[in-house]
Write a structure and sequence with these properties.
With 74 residues, the chain is an alpha+beta fold. Helices cover 20% and strands 22% of the residues.
Length: 74
């Protein structure tokens, strides 16, 4: 599913090499992030971010201690 807002889309991924399993993403945006099965590393359950979650995703990215949340806007 893709969402458009003001002519752009926000996509998000978690860099698995940087992720240290702090869980900030899962705590702040459980609608979009979860822990990998058998691991404490976070993953995005979908790549495209709903406009209603964009602000929370930005906050989670800023607070991620490993800087593992990658936001791409196009």
């Amino acid at each position: 599913m893709q969402y458009k807002k003001r002519g752009y889309m926000m996509n998000v991924v978690i860099d698995q090499e940087k992720c240290n399993g702090a869980g900030i993403c899962v705590q702040m945006v459980p609608e979009l992030f979860r822990f990998q099965e058998g691991s404490k590393k976070g993953i995005a359950t979908q790549r495209t971010v709903s406009p209603s979650l964009e602000a929370n995703v930005r906050r989670a990215a800023k607070q991620c201690p490993a800087g593992a949340i990658i936001i791409m806007e196009k």
